[in-house]
Amino acid sequence: MRSNRLGWWLLSPTLLVLFLFGAVPFFYVLWLAFHQWNPFATNPDIIYNGAENFRRLVFDTAFLNSLGVTVAFVVFAVLTELVIGYMLARAFMRDFPGKAIFRTIHTLPLIMAPIIVGSIWKLMTTPSIGIIPHLLDEWFGYDLNIGQSALAAFTITVIMDVWHWTPLVTLTLIAALVSLPADPFEQAQIDGANKRQIFWHITLPMIAPAVVATVFIRLMDALRTVDEVLMLTGGGPGSATRYLGVHIFKEVFPKTNYGYGSAISVIVLYLTIVVCWLLYVGMLAPRNKK
Amino acid sequence: MKKRNPWLQTLFWVIISFLTLFPIYWLFVISVKPAVDLFSTPDIILRGAYWQNYVDVWTDRTLRGYMLNSLIISSGNALLCTTLGFFACYALTRFNLGGKESIFFWTITNRMAPPAVFLLPLFLLMTQVYRIGDFTLLDTRFGMIMVYCTFNLPFAIWTLRPTLDGIPRELDEAAYVDGASSWKVISEVVFPLCRPGLAVTLILTWVFAWNEYLLAATLTNFNARTLTTGLSEYVTTTGTEWGIMAAISVFTLIPALIVFTMVQRHIVAGLTFGAVKG
């Protein structure tokens, strides 16, 4: 076996860069989280205040509300993406004219910048100029106003996320479905299983690892959504779409509440890592070792 | 299974494609409308195009500068991340380094952080600590190239892992037995076999860097401002210049679309770190 020293040399630039631009900022945030610091307040000094920020966090309704809407957003968005993505993946399994073109079209939203996705949906939903409120009003007499209705704003952010990311789910599930062996399905059909039974007892268990991998990726990105929502609703109306990423941004920048903002950041990062780690260790790592 | 009419399926996909494309189409419609027409009744079908918004964007020297910045930053970052990611991943898959699974997971935690978490510390570090002589990293292209490594470098490592795992170790061992140096093994045995994976990584990291907004909005002022940030300058408290905003969006979209169609078939493995084979 070659010496491991070469291995560490090859790895060191990466570790150095991630240390400087990942770990150091993180420890800085961690340190700030135990201090009170608002450079533009009457007392601009950095004052150590122990776990006060974290204590405040537990009782902070703004934070708890943000956590709640984030969970709702992630659950609704990821579940919808899974269901629609699966149906589309099944539809793609068959042959039909123009399949390649439709596949390309369907994947287009994937590479669009979140900020542009936000702008597009803002263009389409802003009350006076948007096409969606206009058509809803004309056809159903329904007045859609994402600037006033919390439910409408929440729904539009979910729809935007579904539009942006369902293609990813479709692609991964196609990849999973393509690699399935045919035998179990033929056997089940001979045994007289109906479609629903085949789905629950054969298809789903066999594509489960791919579904978990997809959920892992989507969860990781949905939890850190900022740009799209910031552009579309700015977190409003009120705090209806103030997801964690947006909440931190607003707490840190306009309010310049650096110490408290840091405490929120630490907790959010911690929660994200724990959830992802459980998914990774439980479902993905055993597979990668194979 | 029973046969379905293929043309019916095509019809189904026409509807799905319409839903997918409509927002992009609407962006284009807004971009070719004069401002005065925006508030009249929205018309789904485009009647006549007004290209002034595009001319305005293209002749705006500031925006052209932003575009150049975007190009330099995303290309520099993609090259850097793919190179470092390749060496790191080679080291992680070929050597028995202690704690290698933990190192592996640690790298991805950098990508999990909501970008807002890193805004403040990076801002402060870049003004005060990360200086090179009198030169701070804040508002420089070099600084942004480095900052984007936080989320793109882990991505590159995770994307390249399945590729490198897929190359049999026996291949490099055989080359060593034949007396090749480490450098020769990497450059002449492993690298050529990795080319498709490296291409996907390069293009996806490029797209991510090109698309990034929040960090660029905070950490740049003028010298290193990117195109996505230029976009938000047209949403102001006194009103939004929708047409210009839409035209910039279209400009931002085009390069990403072009590079994307080149790797479209390999994208699944890249976006899911090879957890699902495409």
Number of beta strands of chain A? 2
Work out the helicity level of chain B.
Answer: over 70%
* Order of H and E elements of chain A: HEEHHHHHHHHHHH
Overall outline of chain B = globular
The two chains with the largest interface, and their residue counts, are: A-B, 99 and 96 residues
Largest sheet of chain B: 2 strands, antiparallel
How many strands of chain B? 4
| Proportion in helices of chain A | over 70%
How would you characterize the largest beta sheet of chain A?
2 strands, antiparallel
| Overall outline of chain A | globular
Physical arrangement of strands within the biggest beta sheet of chain A = 1-2
Cα distance spanning the termini of chain B: 25 Å
Strand order of the largest sheet of chain B: 1-2
What Rg of chain B do the Cα atoms give? 23 Å
The string of secondary-structure elements of chain B, in order, is HHHHHEEHHHHHHEEHH
| Low confidence ranges of chain A | none
